Amino acid sequence: MKLRHYITGVALIAIVLHSCSGAPSESIPSDSYPDIIPDYIGVTIPEGIAKLTFEMADGSKCRYEMEREGDTLWYTVTSWRRGEKKGTLYKPFPVYVSSDPIDPYIAYRLIEPGYESWHNIVIAQRELASYKESRIVSNRANNMGCVNCHTFDSGDPQKMLLHARGKGGGTLFMDGDQVRLINLAQIGVKRQGTYPAWHPSGRYVVFSSNSTLQCFTINEFQPIEVYDTASDIILMDLQTDSVMLVPQLSLESRMETFPSWSQDGSTLYVCSAEAVENVANNRGQVHYRLMSAKFEDGVFVGEPEELFGDDSCSVSFPRYNDGYVLFTHTAFGTFPIWHDEADLWMYDTRSKEALPAEILNSDKAESYHSWSSNGKWVIFGSRRLDGRYTRLYIAHYKGNGEFDKPFLLPQKNFKHNTLRLKSYNIPEFIKGEVKDYEKAVSKLFK
């Protein structure tokens, strides 16, 4: 499915994108770029993404025009304050258009970012060529239990799984029109699945099985810490519906979590930390390392290899692409969304070095991330707008471990980002539109 192009032709095209009544009749030229929100100045976008909308950061009124020259969009902004007779005409700023295609849809969970309770949860999808958002399934389908940890078989919109927590819950497997509810603890090693990773072959799914708790702190900058007291890795064979423990990644002395496959399925990347007694009080001692384990013919072989980590940091959410593992780097612990210091780092599997992906990071938490199917784009969650609500950013991958400046997922109106009191959780690229599974899931919970 191709994205709709919002610009046609090769000549320069001037388009009025936004204007306000009461504009001044005279404008004073400026040599600086406008201070706009979101900051779209110098970002790289895919061809056909929904139109970028923005406002002046100081609240003043504005109008802007856009013209295209080759692969660059030039935005010219005029702004003024109410009642002023003269405005400011800012230096045109560039937005670069990449020829690298992007998957047409993304999926994510919408949830209140609080810790004391939650109400309505929706696994939703968004068409990137427009502002169209639609439901995949909500927690109304499972009697207001939790729905979480959705993932797709190599981005296939016809094959996905997610967890439905609460009475009668389990793991939901969707394959076209077929929906199955499986309680993993009843068919294998008496462990439920938590964070999943679908093998590229489509036959296997690896889960971490986590015992997760939370504690509250007196630190105003981090009101809550979410942590595991135990976690192991389990493997499910979808051909036989069997679930087994992975001995090398289920040690009592360690906690293993956040599994993720290499593109060829020969290597599993996982985060592993030494078990710590009384984790709530000793959470600063919890440091997850980046590990890898070899996988052949449905079996893990050999011992896991430690790739990166020490007692000064903790690793979460490893995602492999192009010889690199993109991961979230925090000071300690396993749940980076509440850590302002959480940043995205890249581990080079060839040089064995890890460095921060500086252009992706901010002074607030960067957390969950995933690659597009062609490896040319990455989407990630960030709290940089207000420190409390996670919003989605997309960045173009240039290769050799380098990214272009990321951009905030466009909305029809920027105020959507401030008025929508939901966080965007677990963003994943998908290759097409997913059907609405609300009725099919509801039947399983009657």
Number of helices: 3
Q: Going by CATH, what is the homologous superfamily of the largest domain?
A: TolB, C-terminal domain
Q: Indicate the radius of gyration in whole angstroms.
A: 23 Å
Q: Could you say how many structural domains there are in total?
A: 2
- The CATH class of the largest domain turns out to be Mainly Beta
The first-to-last residue Cα distance is 36 Å
CATH fold name of the largest domain: Neuraminidase
**Share of helix, binned:** under 10%
What does this entry look like structurally?
The chain is mostly beta strands and 446 residues long. It has two domains: 85 residues, no CATH class; 340 residues, Neuraminidase (6 Propeller), CATH 2.120.10. It has three helices and 34 strands. Strands 1, 2, 4, 6, 7, 8 and 9 form a seven-stranded mixed beta sheet that branches. Strands 29, 30, 31, 32 and 33 form a five-stranded antiparallel beta sheet that branches. A four-stranded antiparallel beta sheet has the order 12-11-10-34, with no helix packed on it.
Features:
seven-stranded mixed sheet, 446 residues, Neuraminidase, disordered N terminus, mainly beta
